[in-house]
Amino acid sequence: xxxxxxxxxxxxxxxxxxxxxxxxxxxxxxxxxxxxxxxxxxxxxxxxxxxxxxxxxxxxxxxxxxxxxxxxxxxxxxxxxxxxxxxxxxxxxxxxxxxxxxxxxxxxxxxxxxxxxxxxxxxxxxxxxxxxxxxxxxxxxxxxxxxxxxxxxxxxxxxxxxxxxxxxxxxxxxxxxxxxxxxxxxxxxxxxxxxxxxxxxxxxxxxxxxxxxxxxxxxxxxxxxxxxxxxxxxxxxxxxxxxxxxxxxxxxxxxxxxxxxxxxxxxxxxxxxxxxxxxxx
Length: 281
Fold this sequence. Notes:
Radius of gyration: 18 Å
Number of strands: 0
C-alpha cells in the first residue's frame, strides 16, 4: 500500500477495506489466509480476556496508583449515573479495564502499543455488544485497524518516546475510528477520514507518565481515546469529509512529534509527570 492511506483506499474500492488489508498482509508476510485469521481470532480472545480481568475490583498495579477503577466506572454506567450514555460508558469502562490490566502486568494486545492497549478492543468489543456483530466481523475490523496502524507506524510513529502520546493513544484512536466506520458500513474513504479526525483531535498530545510508569495519565487517556474514536467515526459516518488529506494529517503528527521537547516525550520530566505531587511520590 506504499505506506499511504490513499493507496489503501484505492485498493479497497474493488474488494473492500478488510480484504484489501488481508491481501496486503498475505503478500508482504507470505503467511496463509487461514493463519492470519487464526492469529486475529487469538488476538481478539486476549483482548476479551484482558477486559474481563481488568474489571476485577480487587485488581491493583504494583505501584498502587491504578486498579479497581474500571469496576467503579462500570457500576456507575450500570446505575445510570454517567453523562455519556450506556454505549459510550461501557466502552470507556472497558478501555480503562484493559489499561488497568496492563498496568497490573496482565496479558494484553499492544494495539498498537501497551500504553494504548485499551482503545481499539474497547471500541470493537462494545460495538459487538451494541450491534450484534460476530467475531468474524470483529476480525475484519481488526484487519482494517492493523492496516491503518501500519501506515501510521511507517509514515510517522506509534512511539510515545518518539512522538508523544499522540503517537500512541492518538494512533490507537485513529485505528479504532477507521475500524468502527468499516463495521458500520462506511466507505473506505470515510474510514480514512475518521482516522484523520481522530489524529487531529489529539495533535500535540504529550507523553508524560508519572514515575515513568504506564499508569498515570496513561490509563485515563485510554478512556478519552475511545471517546475520540467514536466521535471521529461519527463525523465520517455523517458524511463529513476531513478537510485535509488523511496522509497529510499523519505527516503533520510526525512533524509535531519531532518538535516536542524531550521533556514531553516519555522522559517523566514534564507535563503531568512534572507536577509537584507526582514528583513527591
